[in-house]
């Protein structure tokens, strides 16, 4: 069985009306994509921010007819805004397999690997984290996660207490445990993230009690030697005192999810409670490392 896919580029003002009309005409799904490589960083809560020029893709049954003319009947003014209209035939395939095949093992530092479950570990004797991309953030592909994994690979937390604040998939927490951390806490305000973390813990054949998952900082019952937070600059700024309270004196704080232009503001903001140690850059993103003051 095949499907028809409608593709067109429009301004951001027309993206939502276009999506609504395509859905009314029977679209099975509608997707927004960036038409001009225009990055969007850190939207506000409950905000859907679109690109100046947005590519709208809509999938229809193979026998759908007269969609374009019906679309313009519904929105006559839309014809003036749409560009690059095209229709493609999409053949049915094993979508899950095609999606998974696009992910390959990733190497971090000396012997730390993130390995999708459908591929063998390139180095069976290395530290292998078996993890598939899923609903929760953090599969190792994004620069912010890579920066954290590279730091962990270079500073194995053997016999240390580690907190992964904003754990997403649990990738950093699992990496810390596989690098011989004494105990690990994974915190996220999203229950789906904690479910993903627990699932990935079992996938990596780790004892469920080897890693504690919590929704609130108040539930963490011991001070950490290392706290890692791969989130965004705004919450990182709000959490300064929380991180201070969760760390031991002279404990290490590793922050990621920070754009280069946000770096100095955060360094200045943390100066009262933390000594700044170093920064590392990857693409548009920065990792900051601090030490908690006594």
- Total domain count: 2
Report the helical percentage: 25-40%
Tell the overall outline.
Answer: elongated
Nearest-angstrom radius of gyration? 23 Å
Count of DSSP helices?
Answer: 10
Write down the CATH topology of the largest domain: Rossmann fold
Percent of residues in beta strands? 25-35%
What is the H/E string?
EHEEHHEHEEEHEHEHEEHHEHEE
Structure commentary:
The protein is α/β, with parallel strands linked by helices and 294 residues long. It folds into 2 domains: 2-92, ACT domain (Alpha-Beta Plaits, 2-Layer Sandwich), CATH 3.30.70; 137-292, 3-Layer(aba) Sandwich (Rossmann fold). It has 10 helices and 14 strands. The strands form 3 sheets. The protein has a 7-stranded mixed beta sheet, with helices on both faces. The longest helix is centred in the N-terminal third of the chain and has 13 residues, at 12-24. The N and C termini lie far apart (66 Å). The mean pLDDT is 87.
Sum up the structure in keywords:
10 helices; Alpha-Beta Plaits; single chain; 294 residues; 2 domains; 14 strands; Rossmann fold; seven-stranded mixed β-sheet; alpha/beta; four-stranded antiparallel β-sheet
Question: What's the short story on this structure?
Answer:
This protein is an alpha/beta fold and 294 residues long. Helix content is 29%, strand content 33%.
Describe how the helices and strands are arranged:
Blueprint: E1 2-11, H1 12-24, E2 29-34, E3 53-61, H2 67-74, H3 78-81, E4 83-91, H4 95-100, E5 106-108, E6 112-115, E7 127-130, H5 143-154, E8 161-165, H6 171-178, E9 183-187, H7 191-203, E10 211-214, E11 224-230, H8 233-238, H9 240-246, E12 247-259, H10 263-270, E13 274-282, E14 285-292
Parallel strand pairs: 6-7, 8-9, 8-11, 9-10, 11-12
Antiparallel strand pairs: 1-3, 1-4, 2-3, 5-6, 12-14, 13-14
């Amino acid at each position: 069985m095949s499907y028809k896919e409608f593709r067109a580029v429009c301004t951001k003002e027309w993206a939502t009306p276009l999506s609504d009309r395509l859905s009314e005409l029977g679209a099975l799904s509608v997707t927004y994509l960036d038409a001009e490589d225009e990055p969007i960083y850190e939207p506000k809560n409950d905000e859907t921010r679109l690109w100046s020029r947005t590519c709208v893709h809509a999938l229809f049954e193979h026998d759908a007819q007269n969609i374009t003319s019906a679309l313009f009947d519904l929105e006559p003014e839309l014809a003036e805004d749409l560009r690059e209209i095209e229709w493609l035939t999409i053949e049915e395939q094993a979508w899950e397999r095609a999606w998974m095949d696009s992910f390959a093992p990733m190497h971090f530092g000396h012997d730390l690997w993130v390995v999708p479950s459908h591929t063998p570990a390139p180095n069976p004797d290395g530290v292998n984290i078996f993890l598939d991309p899923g609903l929760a953030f953090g599969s190792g592909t994004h620069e912010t996660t890579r920066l954290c994994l590279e730091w962990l690979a270079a500073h194995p937390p053997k016999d240390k207490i580690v907190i992964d604040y904003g754990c997403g998939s649990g990738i950093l927490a699992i990496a810390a445990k596989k690098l011989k951390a004494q105990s690990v806490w994974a915190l996220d305000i999203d229950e789906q993230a904690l479910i993903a973390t627990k699932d990935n813990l079992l996938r990596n054949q780790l004892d469920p009690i080897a890693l504690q998952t919590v929704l609130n900082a108040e539930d963490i019952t011991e001070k950490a030697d290392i706290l890692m937070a791969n989130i965004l600059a705004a919450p990182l700024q709000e959490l300064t005192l929380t991180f201070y309270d969760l760390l031991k004196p002279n404990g290490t704080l590793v922050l990621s999810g920070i754009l280069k232009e946000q770096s100095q503001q955060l360094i200045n903001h943390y100066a009262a409670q933390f000594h700044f140690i170093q920064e590392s850059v990857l693409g548009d993103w920065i990792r900051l490392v601090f030490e908690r003051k006594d």
